[in-house]
Design a protein that fits this description.
about 220 residues, alpha/beta, Uracil-DNA Glycosylase, subunit E, 9 helices, 6 strands, EC 3.2.2.27, DNA repair, hydrolase
Length: about 220
């Protein structure tokens, strides 16, 4: 099967596409999209890679599952297309941005501008059945996205990994902390944020401080 993914990522990940687990995953995904409503739409599944090529990746924000409501998911973790209501977790991300860097809260939830600046907005699972959170977990996507993290860790240096919540923090074992920067906090979801585990982490200013020390262009959040 020909996987439509950005050229540099395709080169880096070419061995994965030929592995048994990935072929089984694609067979499963094709059947799901044929028999059920699934998100995001097929052409958006690899948007995180399309908008943020391997060579340009300097920050990684790891999510778990795509949004499972209509028209929300478009292949970027935490992001929704313009015209769709901003989800609660992203509202809290925006609130922290405002507190941290005095950035006004946007009127939309589309984070494509971040991705195009080198922020890989990666979900661990890239697809989901409508209204069924976690329905495509443990089918192979996590094996694939774990390898994405390993490749970034082994073949690049100085990336800032933002790991929010317990699930994301467990991915730290895939990252060489001697070469990269790992910032952790609670998840921005209301449940976690309202318990005091999210607000005040200052991850956005800290990310830019790290990039500045590396003489890398800052992210315009």
């Amino acid at each position: 099967m020909e996987v439509k993914i950005e050229a540099n990522w395709k080169k880096i990940l070419k061995d994965e596409f030929d592995k048994h687990y990935f072929k089984s995953l694609i067979t499963f995904i094709k059947a799901e999209y044929k028999n059920y409503t699934c998100y995001p739409k097929g052409t958006d599944i690899f948007n995180a890679f399309e908008f943020c090529p391997f060579d340009k990746t300097k920050v990684v924000i790891l999510g778990q599952d795509p949004y499972h409501g209509p028209q929300q998911a478009h292949g970027l973790s935490f992001s929704v297309p313009k015209g769709i209501s901003t989800p609660p977790s992203l509202i809290n991300i925006y609130k922290e941005l405002k507190e941290d860097l005095t950035i006004p809260i946007p009127e939309h939830g589309n984070l494509e501008s971040w991705a195009k600046q080198g922020v890989l907005l990666l979900n661990a699972t890239l697809t989901v059945r409508a209204h069924e959170a976690g329905s495509h977990q443990n089918k192979g996507w996590e094996i694939f996205t774990d390898e994405v993290i390993r490749k970034l860790s082994s073949e690049k240096e100085g990336i800032v990994f933002l790991l929010w919540g317990g699930y994301a923090k467990r991915k730290s074992k895939l990252i060489n902390s001697a070469k990269h920067h790992i910032l952790t906090s609670g998840h921005p979801s209301p449940l976690s944020a309202n318990r005091g585990y999210w607000f005040g982490n200052k991850h956005f200013s800290e990310t830019n401080n790290i990039l500045a020390r590396q003489n890398t262009s800052l992210v315009k959040w």
